[in-house]
Amino acid sequence: MNNVGDFTELEFRKKAREFPKGVFQQLIFLPVVSSTNVFLKEGLKRRTLPMGTVVVAAEQTHGRGRFDRVWFSPKGGLYCSLSLRPKTVVKNTSLIPLFTALAVVKTLLKFQIHSLIKWPNDVHIHGRKIAGILLESEVENNAVNYVIVGVGINVNISTFPDTLKVPATSLLQQLQKPVSLVSVFSEFIECFHHYYTLFLQEKYNEILYEWKLNSDTIGKHLVVRSGALEIDGVAVDVDDFGFLLVQTPDGIMKVSSGDCEYLDGL
Ligand code: BTN
Q1: DSSP three-state, residue 103
Q2: Cβ of 88 below 6 Å from ligand 1
Q3: What is the pTM of this model?
Q4: How far is CA 81 from CA 27, 36, 76, in A?
Q5: pLDDT per position as a tens digit, 145-181
Q6: According to DSSP H, which parts of the chain are helical?
Q7: 58, exposed or middle or buried, with CB in 10 Å at 0-12, 13-18, 19+?
Q8: To which H or E segment does residue 179 belong?
Q9: Cα 130 to chain centroid, rounded
């Protein structure tokens, strides 16, 4: 029996039976893995894992973040990746990271933790990151082949290295007590399933409305960095695809991906 963080594989399997059927077909538990995203991607490519597989690891040796950053992944965190093949036009997949962040915010609320989303999908509390989302997808002939949604939530992590690019926090630091990883995971699966269902029903406006309610980005003076591009302005809205609209002296610029830095503090 593997110990996955503070719960046994058996407890985890019991909970997994309650998970919504249809989307999630199989759960894999790993005491340690390089990266749940990489493991899942390789399994899908070799066809050794079916679509709908969810991978959870107690620890990652090479946890990956956006823009090839490292994701700090010691025991105590929740590291999971979900594989999906939504029947949707490719363009709409840009909404997936946004509603995944929403699912994380709602999960944390169940534990009385109030967090906010920094566009597009950083979940933070007063500028300290508590969760991150890494989406990887493959498109073939203008159809989505797979989407891997990787989610890292800092659950029972007591301290973080000073070298992290963005300061971090955890449920343990916020609540001053440890929290069951299996309960965080099952709440997340439930919340994710709720928003994924809205997405498949094409209720995009509902998703975007809720995203805006739970984000602190709109109205902020910020810099958005996307590769070599750097846009300085005021975030005025997100469009139907979740792209950020930034008012600059040269007009409104539309940004599809990037990293935001708020210029007037948190
Ligand atoms: C970010 O904010 O930069 C995204 C972090 C995503 C981390 C998760 S942990 C589970 C999955 N496996 C990975 O290697 N990364 C994602």
Answers
A1: helix
A2: no
A3: 0.94
A4: 10, 6, 16
A5: 999 999 999 999 999 999 888 899 999 999 999 999 9
A6: 9-16, 36-45, 96-109, 171-175, 181-200, 204-213
A7: buried
A8: none
A9: 11
The 10s digit of each residue's pLDDT in 201-221 is 999 999 999 999 999 999 999
pLDDT of residue 249: 94
Mean pLDDT for the chain overall: 92
What's the chain's Rg over C-alpha atoms? 18
The residue with tokens 């989610």 is: 151
Per-residue pLDDT for 65 more than 60? Answer: yes
Residue range 72-85: mean pLDDT, rounded? 96
**Does the structure show a pLDDT above 50 at 59?**
yes
pLDDT bin (cut points 50, 70, 90) of residue 250 is very high
For residue 21, give Cα distances in angstroms to 15, 59, 192: 13, 27, 13
| Residue located via tokens 């969760």 | 131
Peptide bond into 86 cis (omega under 30): no
16 lines ligand 1 (CB under 6 A): no
Q: Does any ligand 1 atom lie closer than 6 A to the CB of residue 121?
A: no
Q: Please give the number of the atom of ligand 1 that sits closest to the Cα of 35.
A: 14
Closest to 233 (Cα-Cα) out of 250, 208, 216 = 250
Q: Report the Cα 94 to chain-centroid distance in Å.
A: 13
User: Is 71 a pocket residue for ligand 1 (Cβ < 6 Å)?
Assistant: yes
Distance CA 257, CA 110 (A): 29
Instruction: Find out whether the beta carbon of 233 lies less than 6 Å from any atom of ligand 1.
Output: no
